[in-house]
Fold these 2 entries.
Entry 1:
Amino acid sequence: MSRGLRALRPGWVLSAPRPGRWGAPLAIALLLTTTAACGGAPGRAHEGSGPADTSEAALTYGTRPVRDPSITYQPDVVIVEGGPRAIRSASSDGLTWTIDGKARGAQDVRLGKVLYATSRAVGRVQEVRRVHGDVVATLGPVEFTEVFRDAHLTLDQDIDDGALHYLEIPDLPGAVTVSADAPTDAATEAEKGAAKDAARDVPTTARTIGQTSVRAAHSGRVGIVVARGPVRAAAGGTLPPARSSSVTADLGDWNAQPYRSPGAFGLKFNHKAAAGLKVFVDFSLKTEKLHIRSDVPISGGRVADGATFAVEGIKSVAISIAAGAANGVIDNSKIRAEVPVQMTLPIAGTPFAFNISWKFSVATALGGNNTTVTASGEWGLDGAIGMVNGSIVTPKLSVIKSIMDSVTGVSVGVSGIATAVEFKVQVGVGVPAAFAGPYAKLVMDFGVTNGSALGAPLTRCVGATLDGKVGGGVGVSVSAVAMAALKKLLPTMKFQLLQESLTPFVHRQQTLPDVPLCKS
């Protein structure tokens, strides 16, 4: 049995309609057994048997669509048969897909239709052409309900972190960062627009379900995120194969590395050891039987009220921060980035992929030459994140290791660093930049300050802030800056997003010692 199949053992079930609750929506047959199916022909629930498809093509491009009587696709969805074997290549931004022109359904791909070739090659066709008999299609975002008219997504399943693979999207729209202080005369209009969005403190946007309160995801601590430009113009820019080992993404002056280990998920990011600034952050989530619980009925192209998608098993969150500046304030930097590396797992016998994605932001405020700041802390989390019966659920937080006890460093002026990390889990379909389906996310904001060494004879002041927020919904979860990048790449795209709401579950702020000098 493959590792991928062990990761998702029976738990996707054949859902029968529930009379009196949602009427009679059709159900997605999501049956995983040791002989899980991998697709099928029209009119048959599943065709063929065997373990989950963990081939390089499936891990990179996703699984094939499912032909099942219990699933009704929208009328403008064009299904291409053959699954990942029909994919010749994908561009390094994940938007342009080259498909075997002989695959069944390929000749039906038209401008404006929704192409569905694999779980990662799903989107509304923005451009299509024939090249040497193959079909080359550029895809834009689609809503979950623009693909499925009637379906029922249910899941009650542990996730094996060892089965996840890393998928790098080198030119993920919106991922490239530049300094917030970059000269504006060198910026394009799209870049200036992204900068304005960042300056206005635009939160992540999405279509969501549930009653929540609006909070900005990275309040006051964002830089500029821009697109690199159409990958189609670059020679040989293709999506690299998925891999089992971690990937370090190059983000201008920064690096980011998502990672997994038994019982833990994390993101390391650092400013490259150049010029005078050095920053290293390690954010981690400790887990115990990471578990996904989902109940999302779709009927008539609408998600029914009371949907559930929750992530359970996150036991704690920890962070370690180290920063230094050789030249004081002139070395400071502010950035915001969407990490172009996702953790993924195809789900056999279903039209979906399991996906984990990351975002982060950093702002340094280091004063004085040869300044350093270090800090670390860990907090327990008790409870699920996401949405249950249409409402956002949040965990309870407890202190395992106080970050206040660890703040240290050397500075002739007051110095600090602020960072935020977003961890998002999603099951669905779509291009990497605009994945569609039920999701849950955890956003943690941290800030630490270290007082001036000149004040040490009197007292040295230290401070810390902690904010935690949870989001969840069903649909496309995309940031405003990523949407700006997509619009630049796809000028004919017509897709609107609603503002996402995040529900806060903790806000703590402390300054020590508790004396008037520090409070001022």
Note: The helical segments are 3-7, 56-61, 189-199, 480-489, 516-519.
Entry 2:
Amino acid sequence: MFYLKLALTNLKKNQRAYAPFILSMIFLVNVNVIMQILLKNDGMNSLPGADSAKSLFGFGSIVILIFTTIFSLYTNSFLLKQRKKELGLYNILGMGKRELGKILFIETILVSSFSIVVGLFTGIIFSKLSFLILKKMTGFGEGFTYSLNVMSLGYVVVFFIGIFLLLYVINMIQLKLVNPIELLKGTQIGEKEPKVKWLTGISGIVCIGAGYYMSVTIESPLKAISLFFIAILLVIFGTYALFMASSIMILKWLKRRKKYYYQPTHFIAISNMMYRMKQNAVGLASISILSTMVLVTLSTTGSLFFGMDNVIKNRNPYDMSLMVPQDKVKEVETLFKSGAKKYDVRLKEVDHADLSDGLMVIKDNNNYKLLSKDTKNLNDFSKAESLNFMTEDAYNRLEKTNLKLSDDEIALYSMNGKFEGNSASFGNKPFKIKQIIDNITFIPRVSGISNMLFVVVSNQNVMEDTLKALAPNDYTNYSEMSPTVYANVSGDSNKQLVYAKEMKSQLKAMGMTDSFSSAAIDREELQAFTGGFLFLGMILGLSFTLATGLIIYYKQISEGMQDEHRYDIMQKVGMSHQEVKQSIRGQIIMVFFFPIILATLHLAFAFPLMSNLLMLFGLSDKVLFMIICIIMVVIFLLIYLVMYAQTSKVYYRLVERKVV
């Protein structure tokens, strides 16, 4: 009973440090409850693209679990540092480390029980709200119903019991490793004035420069995949190294400027930051990295959600299309026409394009060679282009023109890149380019991962000979013509969706849905994916923002406790209260605005890399992505200013007894 009363008294007296810790743990329980309820929802299996939706939220739940563990360890280390003086005093007064362990154990039980119970209760409430938001964002139908899975709640409870046990074990290990004098000094243990670590600073600049260089020089989305995580790790390491080295270098440079340094406000600010710069550097670098993660996460997920029309256009040049055998063209066209009348959809056009099957080729001095199906070279994939052949008769019919070609001449259309030269070879079969086609009306221009080439030859025999030159060993796999039947429609979007699904169903009965593509069906599935992706981005962004705010808060408390007696001393030697307040204001502004500036710089240099990655999802609208990035920077800056203002009040309150 004695230990219980003592533990309750300790929690009450240390509420300034414990309150944000408990609130953050409740928030983390909330987030995990929401993710688990959504992931284990029975209606998830009946959704369009159920597998991708479950994979997306499964990935999100793993990220949240990892984030929860790391952030819990960080907040616990701050708590222990703030409690060391109190625990040391108990130890000096005769309480052994075993008794201190009992107090910590009871405190852990009280805090964990309160956090888990309140977190579960509020998590269930907010999960219902999150469910409604997700349903609205994704367009999930009536099958996606809210259900409370007891197993998912039990999973969260077990996970957080494990987290709190881990924190208790770490605290006990720390308690056994330090002596009573160190405990009694607690947070008063400062740091010696650090030396400039030139090697660390240079390595930081090199790492950030290398990460930036990778981002701005990558031209292929496929290369962006392999270099993405490497660039991230380089920038993260470089940021920590840069803060630890350059901050000290800048402060020492300011200190050498006598006219600047020997002013009351500058003297205190620079001296205080120099005194604890190692601790400052790690905290500030963490704030910068977390801010960057918030900006990148919300910018990319927001761009995919609001750029859905651009993605659909790039995936579906036509409202409906599929490749069919030559003898089925008229039958499929008739099916599209009759279906449009039945489902009250206006058919703007229906036709077919006689194209060869697409080949992936690599260009080498205007000579195109077939990309081997067995190749695993990512560099070759990044350079590959899609190649289709068609005869001049098929081209003239669709374009309503009168192009005339000889057997050694071609007309060439490069969709996403300008073709240079007046000749081209395919498998060493040479052709003269009679005409560079600027636009083909029956093939809408879309942006893709690779360039698309359309080559018009004089007749079918020339096409077959060219295909043999390109693929001499497996010519039969490419020689058969597979016309693309396409249709463009207009009318009510719901009717278009019903029409497209019915066409897909009938084509499936005919055994011809392998290449079927529908903008309406894709829109339904894509809305579910992008909506879920944005929802996940909001959850992660909110979590990273909370982490940023708490790091700032803990930093203010820790430094306020250390600075309280320093400002008292400075006033005793002649500094006015106003000068002290100005020094405090200048120090806070200098410390907390550099991370957000660097985070914005990281986002700016990450823009090319992220643009390439978004191309893999089908988003080619870089202007939209830039607008979303700017909006996110402005919104986060406003949130950051609020966090800065609120946490600064904590710092002022800690020293206001001396600054009146």
Note: The chain is about 70% helix and 10% strand.
